[in-house]
Amino acid sequence: MADNRARLISAARKAFAEKGYAAASMDELTAAAGLTRGALYHNFGDKRGLLAAVVDQIDSDMAQRAQQIAAAETDSWQGLLAEGAAYIRMALEPEVQRIVLLDGPAVLGDPSQWPSQSSCLQATRQKLELLITQGVLKPVDTEAAARLLSGAALNAALWIAASASPEAVTAKAVEAFRMLASGLLAPSAIK
Question: Are residues 41 and 70 in the same domain?
Fold first, then answer.
């Protein structure tokens, strides 16, 4: 069953990226997976459920990649900034644009309510708590700050995906994200 699920997600990811959710045929993607519609219904309920699984996989992959970029930084503060900027820049990737940032919200609704976004929110909150403990950030409600930073990165990514000039928008969005986040710095941490 796990193999069938993985095959359907892989086929759907390819079909949704190439054609978009609306144009992707369930018959074509199940045939590409070597399975039947029954397998799709059994594993995901419907095409929308399959999209939710694909979005969750891609969004989780994005978070993992952003966290790896953050881990390469020399300190936690630079890591937090690098992670947010990396997430924003991923909006330039065609698969991310079409599936996660355009089709996902149109079909699945508010991205801030997706399980993968909730996981990112909690990870950001933990990082903020650490930075406050280290004296890098001002004392602030970490849930509020995490929601605002995560929301800023997500909305920047949505802006890029909908833009006619995504490269130019990305540069502006990353710069504004860094400036916004820097407002949380404790006076002693400002260099």
Answer: no
Q: Are 71 and 35 in contact (CB under 8 A)?
A: no
**Domain limits at 174?**
56-189
Residue 51 within a domain = no
Q: Are residues 16 and 78 in the same domain?
A: no
How far, in whole angstroms, is CA 155 from its chain's centroid? 10
Backbone φ/ψ region at 109: left (φ over 0), alpha (ψ -120 to 50), beta: left
* Residue 92 pLDDT > 80: yes
Label residue 46 by pLDDT band (50, 70, 90): very high
**65-85 burial by CB neighbour count: b if 16+ within 10 A, else e?**
ebbebbeeeeebbebbbbbbb
| Same domain flag for 111 and 20 | no
The SS3 of residue 26 is: helix
Q: Are residues 139 and 101 in the same domain?
A: yes
| Rounded Cα–Cα distance for residues 28 and 97 (Å) | 22
